[in-house]
Amino acid sequence: MAILIDNVLIKGLSGSIGNMTFRQRGGETIVSKRRRAASVPATEIQMKNQEQFRAATMYAKTVIKDPVIKALYDTVATGGQTAYNVAFSDAFKGPEIKSVSIDEYHGQPGDLILIKADKLLVLKMDVMIVNADGVVIEEGQATVAGKAWKYTVSMLNEAVHGSKIIVTAINRPGIVVKKEVTL
């Protein structure tokens, strides 16, 4: 792969010529060797990844056509990223739940559970508290609080030890990610 600088003949060119492929990225022309056809059939995992890639591509193409949603993704883009790149990543990888803080949870109403996640890219954050016997104590939605999500407990949990906090994040493309913390 090579990045061309100040080449008047090739600047702005994209596509394939012979065994070379030209792409445009961030205002630069990138030249690489032409991709060859696969000689081995794709595995089931590769097929699944290809389908996920296609779905993420369709989502990203749809997003950049909507100026409001595109502007949201533009605010998250860093470095050489575009709104398309961020939207593609959002649809391909899904949301990330970085941490679930249970330091302020003692099983009492009014206790707080703090969740750190992709603030902009997560649309909804659900919290479920399940006791050690598997009985749901409570469930509800967390709210955005600064750079984190906050869930205020409303029910008493007398047997905190062995209980589970199950956090579910849903992003704009509708991908669901769960994180479970055992107390």
Describe the protein's topology.
Blueprint: E1 2-4, E2 15-17, E3 20-25, E4 28-33, H1 44-63, H2 67-76, H3 83-93, E5 97-101, E6 112-117, E7 122-130, E8 136-141, E9 143-145, E10 148-152, E11 164-171, E12 176-182
Antiparallel strand pairs: 1-4, 2-3, 3-4, 5-6, 6-10, 7-8, 7-11, 9-10, 11-12
Could you characterize what this model shows?
The chain is α+β, with helices and mostly antiparallel strands and 183 residues long. The protein has three domains: 32 residues, no CATH class; 50 residues, no CATH class; 86 residues, Immunoglobulin-like (Sandwich), CATH 2.60.40.1220. Helix content is 22%, strand content 37%. It has three helices and twelve strands. Strands 1-4-3-2 form a four-stranded antiparallel beta sheet, with no helix packed on it. The chain has a four-stranded antiparallel beta sheet with strand order 5-6-10-9, with no helix packed on it. A four-stranded antiparallel beta sheet has the order 8-7-11-12, with no helix packed on it. β2 and β3 form a beta hairpin. α2 crosses α3. The radius of gyration is 23 Å and the shape is elongated. It starts with a strand and ends with a strand.
